[in-house]
Amino acid sequence: MITKANEKQTEEIREIWRICFPQEDPRYVEYYFKNLYQPENCFIYLLEDKVVSCVIRNIHAVMFNGRALQASMIVGAATLPKYRQRGYMRALLNIVVDACEHTELITLIQSEEPSLYKNFGFRILYKRAQYTFTRDDCKRTTNFGCGYNPTAIDLLKVYSAFISRFNGYYARDLEYFVKYLNEIRGQGGKIVAYFNGKDQIQGYASMIPVGKELIVKELIYLDSMALTKLINAALQEKKIVKVSVSEAEDLSRIFPRTPKRIYGSTMMRLNDAELFTKLFGKKITTVEDIVKISQRPLNLNENA
């Protein structure tokens, strides 16, 4: 039976995540279920009152060519190993995709296995670049201007200036960054910000330690000085720093020796091509057409 989850089933769903997503940082999972998870957004497959499969639909606004489009990010699609190959996830996704199709123009999903979702109409929309830094890749600078206690207002200001160069991003507000600060701290991480000589914030890096490496979950910068300062600050934390940015951000111009890897990050399903065409005055039939009419490079960093 397919239904929406209730609060009493939260621990069952968390356990499915623990089993099915062993690569996920348990600190993030803990934060997610404590602060972000909403049972009414989670669709589950019940078998004899046991949750065996689940998928979550998080509704967000996405900015595209100056318009705020209602969209959803589908996350946490998982089935307990014992119950796989029985069609439970297919049935769940059919229900979720149908609900999305009737209420929004586009639906998003992130997966390390894109082939699983092609039959549901999803196509790769957005790619990211991961750079792996060591000390030799970045000229050493002082920490002058860097601070580790930026406010939510600081982050909102610099993010708004940075993201205006891009397209296809989540609309963020002050409340988002209040939660974001707690999210990073909840994972044992920190946010370093760079301020210029006029005490104006020029960028920030959200950093999470994972073993011998430091993962920069988000890198926001307004100029090359901010970028260099933030990478230096990260390298003072760990000897290996991994940074993921949009494919359009070519950090190789400043760090030519740093290895990078391009990977598919976000898939999209186009739910109403006709309405999309009317809204933007361009003939749209596929997800690829959406990329073609984008007035600026895409930047979709969120994963929930």
What's the short version?
29% of the residues lie in helices and 33% in strands. The protein has eight helices and 13 strands. The protein is globular and about 60 Å long.
Structural commentary:
With 304 residues, the protein is α+β, with helices and mostly antiparallel strands. It has eight helices and 13 strands. It has helices spanning 10-20, 26-36, 88-101, 152-163, 174-186, 224-235, 273-280, 287-293, and strands at residues 2-4, 42-47, 50-64, 67-79, 106-109, 123-133, 146-147, 169-170, 190-195, 201-210, 213-221, 240-246, 260-270. Strands 1, 2, 3, 4, 5, 6, 7, 8, 9, 10, 11, 12 and 13 form a 13-stranded mixed beta sheet that branches. A hairpin with a 2-residue loop joins β3 (50-64) and β4 (67-79). The longest helix is centred in the first third of the chain and has 14 residues, at 88-101. The radius of gyration is 20 Å and the shape is globular.
Provide the descriptors you would attach to this structure in a database record.
single chain, 304 residues, alpha+beta, 13-stranded mixed β-sheet, 8 helices, 13 strands, globular
